[in-house]
Amino acid sequence: MTNRHLLGIQGLSPPKITALLDLAENYVLLNRSGKTQRDLLRGRTLINLFFEDSTRTRTSFELAGKRLGADVINMSVSTSSVSKGETLLDTAATLNAMNCDLLVVRHNQSGAPALLAQKVEASVINAGDGTHEHPTQAILDALTIRRNKGRLEGLTIAICGDILHSRVARSNFLLLTMMGNQVRLVGPPTLMPAEVGSLGVTVHHDMREGLRGADIVMALRLQRERMSKGGLVPSAREFFAFYGLDAEKLAYAKPDALVMHPGPMNRGVEIDSAVADHPYRSVIKEQVEMGVAVRMAVLDALARGTLWND
Q1: DSSP sequence for 131-145
Q2: How far apart are CA 40 and CA 253, in angstroms?
Q3: FRET label pair with 215: which of 203, 257, 267, 303, CA 20 to 30 Å apart?
């Protein structure tokens, strides 16, 4: 993290995270008031450069930019020069020549946004890189938790499922442990990172034990597209039987435990529809709403260059 970029949670501090969440709260109120346009980014250009498919993240960054008055361009990688063999560094040179101000990047290779940040004048925001990080997702999850629990410390949070391939899991446990919460990673041994013992979290391979007494239960998508070798899970049906979040397993968490999911959801694989759509325990739709507010706050902070100044 530098004053010009948001590449990951590492480099932030609890006061900086709190300040960003407070700024996002203001944008929640603004969005709910129906005021959708401000002059903060008028005359500035935001480019969404997504090398992987995305619905929630790309759309929320587009909305965030437009609500702050920016000129927003969505670059389709499938029809760009990248699909014709252009390297990432050549793409960076092209973007630099366009004199854009804010560059939102999603890439299937870990470290790609950090490389671009070294080569472009624009502020770069990591919208998810490989299995590395997805910082704005963790920030919006933190905002959702704080709004519903009234605090962001002293909570027990269980992150369940495909931890190994999840950049969301990594950004979340970095942020949540930093803010003074107990984080549990719950999943099969084959879907745990090798370095999990040094991450400051507790690991559970039994879903019921991992959820016992939890305040927050976050289910993660089973990312088969990132599994370079087979055999990590026997089948979707067996995965759901052992690690799918259903009412029976959720009963081991606290009675007021919240259910979260970063999306997209595979219903019947990592989460049951009755749990995902629960009228007062599921905050999955609220996470989507918080995504727009958090991304407005991030664009605001980077454009003004003030939030991260000590």
Answers
A1: TTB-HHHHHHHHHHH
A2: 43
A3: 267
Task: Please report where in the chains the tokens 């004053």 appear, as a residue.
Answer: 3
Alpha-carbon span 165 to 224, nearest angstrom: 9
Side by side, the strands of the sheet bearing 123-129 are: 71-76, 45-50, 102-107, 123-129
pTM value? 0.94
Cβ neighbourhood burial of 55 (10 Å; 0-12, 13-18, 19+): exposed
Q: In angstroms, rounded to a whole number, what is the distance separating the alpha carbons of residues 165 and 152?
A: 25
Residue type, 259: V
Alpha helices, H only, 38-111: 56-67, 88-97
Tens digit of each residue's pLDDT (9 = 90 or more) over 120-140? 999 999 999 999 999 999 999
Model pLDDT for residues 45-93, shown as the tens digit of each residue: 999 999 988 889 999 999 999 999 999 999 877 655 565 567 888 888 8
